[in-house]
Design a protein that fits this description.
With 393 residues, the protein is an alpha+beta fold. It has 2 domains: 2-134; 207-389, Lipid/polyisoprenoid-binding, YceI-like (Lipocalin, Beta Barrel), CATH 2.40.128.110. Helices cover 29% and strands 24% of the residues. It has 6 helices and 11 strands. It has helices at residues 2-19, 32-52, 59-81, 88-112, 120-134, 281-291, and strands at 207-208, 223-226, 231-240, 247-253, 256-260, 267-272, 297-302, 317-328, 331-343, 348-357, 371-389. The protein has an 8-stranded antiparallel beta barrel. Residues 154-199 and 201-205 have low confidence and may be disordered.
Length: 393
């Protein structure tokens, strides 16, 4: 047994190193800890197998055939798992081949090695276990957590972008004095009846500008155009019927557009639900073809965002609560976000977080025989919007 444990520990270290750059089907089920545990189980099986086959002229042949048969059985399980999780074969087969090769070759060598004392096996086991636990959070696992981008360096000078022809260049205001971080009051719009949404996209004649904001007047008439750098993530807990543990499914998209106003005008953000994607193409097809095939656009509208305080310093961070209306599948629903926002010289960044159930937004919970989808959906939305003049009112 000692030889199998040592060989399994060595195989565990090698398998963990190989698994990190591979794209695991599920990082909840297939992380460095579970990979190492599997390698150790193979080591124990090798020891049991060698103890079960008595010495004799055909022992090596019988061991080789039994070992090959065990590997084939594991490979078939991995191939069958591809029907439940994508990338099972490309992730599992290389690891299984590596582990079986190391354990199969190393176990007889260790049996014949003159090892003294009982410490080599526990020591190898401790090293493999510590390494696998330490690296359990590493790898390519997707996360639905977003954050505001790092602020620009304080030494960066304000620059006014070149406007489009026929549009006057705004004169920059003086740099504001530093102030403490303000916190806006919450704005709520929870009317259940649908109301007209503002046009989410400014006109093509909008001119990019650079702002030096000292008060609410400095954003009057400015439209912040939602675009590059924006992202939304939706995290749903699901459990596959043939697997023992649940898994967080993260669905994300960068297909956000719209316009934001800080001067009292309505703001609207559109999200193309057809562009949602995850690490499982079957899940993506279900979202595209069954959930949002006929109405692929969701619109989040805020009738009026909190106004800037009387004194404001560019780069200050807002924190507060904001309620808007989500139009999805033709019906509007109130939705409240916990938000962080920062207005830089050349961009407005807003990070909103919320949680809802499928019933709260009027969307039927996904129903697939082999998957149990939980009712709670965690949402994070990062908005990156650039200021322009001449946009839609």
């Amino acid at each position: 047994m000692r030889a199998g444990i040592i060989a399994g520990s060595v195989a565990a270290v090698a398998a963990v190193a190989l698994s990190l750059p591979l794209h695991a089907p599920s990082d909840t089920l297939f992380n460095s800890a579970s990979v190492a545990a599997g390698a150790l189980v193979v080591g124990v099986l090798a020891a049991v197998l060698r103890g079960a086959i008595p010495p004799g002229p055909t022992r090596h042949r019988k061991l080789a055939i039994a070992w090959l048969g065990l590997f084939v059985a594991v490979a078939l399980v991995i191939v069958a798992g591809e029907t439940q999780l994508e990338r099972m074969v490309e992730f599992g087969l290389p690891l299984a081949a590596l582990v079986f090769a190391i354990v199969g070759l190393l176990t007889p060598v260790i049996e014949r090695a003159p090892l003294r004392g009982r410490w080599p096996a526990p020591a190898a086991l401790v090293v493999a276990g510590a390494l696998s636990v330490a690296l359990a959070g590493q790898g390519d696992g997707q996360s639905g957590t977003l954050s505001l981008p790092a602020p620009p360096q304080a030494s960066a000078q304000l620059r006014t972008a070149t406007p489009t022809p026929g549009t006057p260049t705004p004169a920059p205001t003086a740099s504001p004095p530093a102030t403490s971080t303000p916190t806006p009051t919450s704005t709520s719009a929870t009317s259940p009846s649908p109301s007209p949404s503002p046009s989410p996209t400014p006109s093509p004649t909008a001119a990019p500008v650079t702002l030096a904001v000292a008060s609410a007047e400095d954003v009057s008439g400015v439209t912040f155009v939602v675009g590059e750098g924006s992202e939304a993530t939706f995290t749903v807990n699901e459990k596959l019927s043939r697997l023992p543990l649940p898994n967080d499914a993260v669905i994300r998209t960068e297909a956000l557009s719209g316009s934001i106003h800080l001067d009292g005008r309505p703001s609207a953000i559109e999200l193309d639900l057809q562009q949602l994607s995850s690490d499982q193409s079957r899940r993506d097809r279900y979202i595209r073809d069954r959930m949002f095939a006929r109405e692929p656009i969701a619109t989040l509208t805020f009738d009026q965002l909190p106004a800037l305080p009387e004194r404001y310093s560019t780069g200050d961070v807002f924190e507060g609560e904001l309620t808007g209306r989500l139009l999805i599948l033709g019906v509007e629903h109130p939705l409240t976000f916990i938000v962080e926002a920062r207005l830089d010289a050349d961009a407005l960044f807003v990070l909103g977080r919320t949680t809802f159930t499928w019933d709260e937004i009027g969307v039927p919970r996904p129903s697939v025989p082999s998957v149990q989808v939980q009712d709670e959906v965690r949402v994070e939305v990062l908005i990156a919007a650039r200021p322009t003049l001449g946009g839609a009112n």
